[in-house]
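Dear H.,

Thanks for agreeing to be a second pair of eyes. The structure we're designing against is below in token form, covering all 81 positions.
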């Protein structure tokens, strides 16, 4: 596996763990209720949304890298034929 994909896989793992942690926080503050929890719930939802956006961006980046590498391999295979 090349270095780019290794870095992307590390980012995916990182953002996936942030999503899990943020989802747990959201559930915790939803269950707690009360006005004190509202601020923390809002922050947790913002953290979840941010992590989700970053995760989705990482997925698109990975797709583009894989597609680019496949396109580079394809002409090489055609030249060998």
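And this is the sequence the design step returned. I haven't edited it by hand at all.
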């Amino acid at each position: 596996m090349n270095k780019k994909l290794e870095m992307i896989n590390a980012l995916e793992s990182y953002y996936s763990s942030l999503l899990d942690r943020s989802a747990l926080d959201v559930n915790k503050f939803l269950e707690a209720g009360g006005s004190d929890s509202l601020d923390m719930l809002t922050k947790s939802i913002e953290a979840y949304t941010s992590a989700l956006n970053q995760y989705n961006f990482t997925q698109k980046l990975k797709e583009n890298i894989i597609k680019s590498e496949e396109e580079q391999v394809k002409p090489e295979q055609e030249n060998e034929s």
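Two observations from my side: The chain is about 95% helix and 0% strand. The mean pLDDT is 89.

Warmly,
E.
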